[in-house]
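for the recovery benchmark. tokens below, seq after
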């Protein structure tokens, strides 16, 4: 049996959660409260870097969400999420890397603003939107008129970029500027895996409260 250690609000966990659901793999979920569970000795024994997600399968512990995604595809190839043609393989990896290396840092000030953490200047927000727009244009170019990044089939490119997609509007990135991306987001949101893993407004409000309390306690 697969054991998946995660927290439902983590974007790094969500890509694994979506993959598990899309692949229809049975798993047991252990939910961590990142207020401290990740520092408990039993969890540090699984991941000395105190991060979720972690997957344990048949005594094998896998950390790092991208390693987990690779492992799942190698071990459980049915309901494959892997691109196959050379062009699709390149697109899949480009989209994954651009998401973590370009999108994540670009939207950092927008995420903080959305969550009400810290004070972002207007200039920082405008710059973040500009950088994010370059990523959204890249996505739209790669998607072109296909249903998914690599064509007809959902792949890890869609899983990785697509777990950010439901947040674009709320981050202040108007999706009407990218009609094909908007339709792709809609397509993903109709899938049970996205619906099951989408945090509710209450989940987000609770996270916001917890983070604000933690920051106040730290005098930030
Ligand atoms: N590169 C890691 C990043 C994992 C990560 O940063 N997880 C965060 C939650 S999104 C975490 O566990 N934070 C708690 C901590 O670092 O103590 C991955 O992709 O799995």
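predicted aa per position
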């Amino acid at each position: 049996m697969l054991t998946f250690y995660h927290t439902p609000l983590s974007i790094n966990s969500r890509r694994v959660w979506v993959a598990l659901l899309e692949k229809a793999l049975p798993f047991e979920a252990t939910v961590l409260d990142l207020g401290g569970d990740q520092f408990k000795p039993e969890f540090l024994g699984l991941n000395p870097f105190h991060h979720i997600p972690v997957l344990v399968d048949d005594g094998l512990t896998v950390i790092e969400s991208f390693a987990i995604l690779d492992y799942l595809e190698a071990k459980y190839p049915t309901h494959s999420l892997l691109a196959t043609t050379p062009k699709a393989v390149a697109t899949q990896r480009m989209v994954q890397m651009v998401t973590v290396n370009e999108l994540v840092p670009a939207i950092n000030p927008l995420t903080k603003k959305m969550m009400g953490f810290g004070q972002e200047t207007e200039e920082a927000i405008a710059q973040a939107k500009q950088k994010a727009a370059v990523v959204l244009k890249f996505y739209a170019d790669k998607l072109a008129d296909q249903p998914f990044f690599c064509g007809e089939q959902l792949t890890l490119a869609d899983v990785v970029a697509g777990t950010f997609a439901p947040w674009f509007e709320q981050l202040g990135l108007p999706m009407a500027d990218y009609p094909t991306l908007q339709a792709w987001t809609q397509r993903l949101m109709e899938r049970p895996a996205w619906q099951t893993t989408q945090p509710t407004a209450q989940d987000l409000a609770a996270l916001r409260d917890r983070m604000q309390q933690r920051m106040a306690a730290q005098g930030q």
